[in-house]
Amino acid sequence: MNASPASSMLRALPAECAERLMEIAREVSFPQGTRLFEEGHRADRFWIIRSGTVALDMRVPGRRAAVIETLGHNELVGWSWLFAPHTWHLGAEATSPVRTYEFDADVVRAMCQADPALGMAVGQWVGDTVGRRLRSARKRLLDLYAPYGSGVDR
Q: Among 16, 83, 89, 122, which lies 20 to 30 A Cα-Cα from 45?
């Protein structure tokens, strides 16, 4: 399967690892309003967005789900599939028509277990993504709740 060379995954992973993952990718589309996954459910796949946007959200008792972050072109949707107990920490919904590359988590985890170099590369890529999102969430929380906002970008 041919992927955009600008893909975050293809930039983040060694070429051989990215090519191996793209061999198992499926092209999938979601209409606007489709729920990709629900918080607390089994995390059995992940996606790279080709076009469109996906909102990550969190359930809030007695209220509508709170949007945590909106993801777009070339971004990874889903990281819970890599870490036990393999359940989603958030929910996700297509906020526009979305085209993605979809990956089966069981297959990718098996590939990573069989090839430690691939496993290390995928773990680093997903870990970097989680780290960026955590820093982004921290900054948003500081902007919302700190007396003077987040200050400088760190």
A: 16
